[in-house]
C-alpha cells in the first residue's frame, strides 16, 4: 500500500509532520498548528453538514459520539472561561484575548483534531510521517549530544512571530538545555522541537507508539528508536515511565476479560491523578536507578499544587479563568495554576471544567479499551490516552496539544472505526450519521 498522501487533508497532515523542524525554526508552530486544526475540523464539519443521501458512500463522513463529547466538553471549558471573566470583572476584551490566545490554542485542539480524524486520512500516512520525523530527531539529538560533550552552547532565539501573542517560550527556538531546576546540578536535556523538555517526553512517547505501527520494518525500527531517544533525552521521569508502563497496561487491557479491563482502566485514570505523590514516594529508589534525575522540581510542584487547591476555593464552580503572571516566593515565583494538570484544572476552570474534561477523557478511554481488542488502530490510540493520563503528573497536557496533534487525529480515526465491541453480538457503533 502506498503511503503517499492522496488528498488535500492527507497532504496537509503529511507535510506538516515531515516539515516540523522548518516550522519550528520559524517559530511558527503555535501559529500554524492551531490554524491547521481549525482548517481540518472545518472541512470535516462542512462535508458532514452538506452530505446528502446521494453522496457516494466512499465520500460520506460520520462524526462519532466520542468526538461529539469532546466538542461539547471543550465548549464547556470555554463557558467556564467566560463565566470566570464575568465573575472577576475581567471584561469582554480580556475574555476574547484569553479565548484566542489560550483556549483556541490548547483546549479547542483536543476536540478539533479528533474531529479532523473523521476525514479520509489513512493512519498509514501518519505512521510513515512520524517515522521520518523520528529519523530527523535522532540525527539532531546526536548532534546536540556531541555539542554538549564538546561544551558548545545551543543556539537560541525568539521568533518575530511572538507578535501573535502567547508566552515567549512557545516561540523560542532552543534544541537543548544544560541546566538544573532551582539551583540543582547542571544536566543535559533535549528540547528539539518542543518548548519544554517535559513536553518532548510526551511527544516522543506518542511518536514511539505511532512508529511501532509502521508496516516497513526498517522505518519501524528507525521510528521507535527515534521516539525512545526523544523520551530518554528529555529527562522527564513520568514520560520515561510511560515507555515501560504503557505497553504493560495496554496488554492487560486488551488480553483479559472485561472485569480486568475495568479495574486496569480505572487504575490508569486514578494513577494519572495521583502520580505526583507516587513519584515522590519512589524518589529514593528512582535516584539509584537513573542518575541526574531532578528532585527539587518535585518540591516546587508540590507547593504549587497545595497553593493552587487552596486558591481554587475562591472560585469553586467556574474557576479563575487565567493564570497569575507571578507566584509567591513559596513557589519560587512560579505562577499559580501551572505545572499540575488536575489542580490547575480546578483552579482555572472549576468543578464544571474538571467534570467536562474528565468525562470526555474517561468516555474516550473506555471506548478505546473496548475496541482495542480487535483493532490495532484503537490499541495505538489507547496507548496515546495512557501516555496523556500519565503525563498529567508533570504537565498541563492541553498546553502541549499543538505538539501531539497527530496523535489526536489518530484517536479520531479510532473513534470513527466500526469495530465489534462485543464478540458475539451485533456490531455497535457510537456515531451520528447523516
From TrEMBL:
Alphabetical UniProt keywords: Membrane, Transmembrane, Transmembrane helix
Membrane association type: Multi-pass membrane protein
InterPro entries per UniProt: O-antigen_ligase-rel_domated, WaaL-like
Pfam families on file: Wzy_C
Domain of life: Bacteria
Keyword Nucleus attached: no
PANTHER family on file: LIPOPOLYSACCHARIDE BIOSYNTHESIS PROTEIN PA4999-RELATED, TEICHURONIC ACID BIOSYNTHESIS PROTEIN TUAE
Intracellular or extracellular location(s): Membrane
The organism's taxonomic lineage, starting at the top: Bacteria, Bacillati, Cyanobacteriota, Cyanophyceae, Chroococcidiopsidales
Signal peptide stretch: none
Nucleus keyword on record: no
Protein name: O-antigen ligase-related domain-containing protein
